[in-house]
Amino acid sequence: MHDEEFELEIKNVSKIEGHTHLDVKARNGKVSSCKLKISENKRFFTTAIKGAKYSMVPVTMSRICGTCSSAHVLCATEAVENAFGVKPSEQTFVLRNLLMYASQLRDHAMHLYFFCLPDLFNKDSVLDFNEQELGWVKDGFDLKAAGNLLATVIGGRPIHPHFPLIGGFSKIPEKAALENAKKQLIAVRPKILKIINLFYNDKSTFKRKTNYVALVNNDFNYLKGVIKTAKGTLINEENYGDHLQKVVLPYSTALGVEFESKEYMVGSLARMNLNKESLNKNTLRDAKKYLSEFPSDCIFRNNLAQAIEMLHDLDASLELLDYDFKKEAPVEVKVRAGTGVGVVEAPRGTLYYHIEFDSSGIVKNASICIPTQQNIIHLEKDVASYVEQMLAKKMSKTRIGHEVEKMIRAYDPCMSCATHFLRINWI
Amino acid sequence: MMKIGFFSFTCCEGCTVMFIELLNKKFFEYASKVDIQNIRVLRSNETIGSLDIAFVEGAISTQSEVKKLKEIREKSQMVVALGSGAANGYPSNQRNSFDETRKKEIAPLVKKLHQLDEISPISKFVKVDDQINGCPVSEDELAVKMEGYLKKFS
Predict the structure, then answer these.
(1) What is the predicted ipTM?
(2) A20 in reach of chain B (CB within 8 A)
(3) Is the CB of residue A44 less than 8 Å away from at least one CB of chain B?
(4) What is the mean pLDDT of chain A?
(5) Would you tell me how many other CB atoms lie within 10 Å of the CB of residue A182?
């Protein structure tokens, strides 16, 4: 038997958040190395906020990511509030939930319509779509616009929202603005059902047994709950550090993270696998057929899970928009020395903040753990075995490259987030 | 057709995302007027052809970014600094003003990742024809600027 070498190099993977390359090497059908070489430049955020006043933490950390800035703002805010024992009002929690739902809706729509859809139509880009296919693009823009409008009404703007504060909001939305947002959401609901069906019919398959981790609760909100694993373990938010370990990837500007020394997965698929019965009742009713796919071991089902989550984001928002909002000042903050943990479900999975303050409310230390870091090791292993499966089927290199990119997109990685930070020995 | 490209350097990519938010309203209007040749979040094309306008977001942190930025400048009639990263370096330039302790802490990584000593706005390396400030840029301002550019290049 002669040696058969296979090398796949994808420079600057497109239609994902941020910059990364992928190198795969195989010999005789066995992958010897698979490296996701994240090339996004580090911006040293966790060092930059050392010495900063507590109130600057959310606004600064928001700048880690242009896509999921709301998740960073609210996770950082939760960590600050927990450090000082600040208890925000019920109304604040409703507003924060609305901001998270709006952001998830926008973010998933961007991923599904603009990153993944071209793969389903065998096109490079939505910019190359023909007349018939453009209907989908319009749907994508309309969904994004509806999420965008809700995020703007609640947070002030869709990216780096400036109304949320420690202890509350600087501005409570007007009734007319809320009604307008509601109208737009109702108008786009049928489009979500269409895209759910489209991804349900996508037959791309790669299955493997693994561990899933997500913050769960009984109404599928993204802000509060307990950390649950597929093995049934339940962990309180503040104890997450006992279970996660960071792993240095020498060829990448990002780090990987393992759960109890094993790779695992976070994100929509994890949330759906662990907590689908807590989705909004209207979502459960209208997505019943599609929900029977979960729990699923197929990574490509992450796209379907996101599509279903968009329906939940919309249905849950419609209920919260009926809340009787009143003018209300933020809860007063009394600083004290201490440590606070924040945990939220960002669009791409569980996001952790851990911040230590001195007695005057100045940051002594900060560390954060990003969803994409948690998925990197899992992603590399899956790409390696997917390539082996395709080599066994004698598929062409072009086709393999295309399938691998599809798999990377299904993971929905965010490189801007994954490379924000500096310290590596923090847990 | 006005030929444009979007290029991201050291940043959060929020300003390109804002442009895509603008497309929520303007996609079908721009379809006949604007040819978006480079935009990595939407298409894979890596080759930089001759452009009317290059929109550049993010600050400059490595020599390879300097090289790419200069190539973009050579091939574009107009370079627009999109957002505060490209226009003034913020927030990536926070590390320029770190105290000695923090500078020492990040030094090994700055070296390992071949980052430059200082983070700079793009104007340090190339001529910039226009800038749209903000972190991120505002959708409305971007729309107004696009109107002006369309008049100029069509």
Answers:
(1) 0.91
(2) no
(3) yes
(4) 93
(5) 17
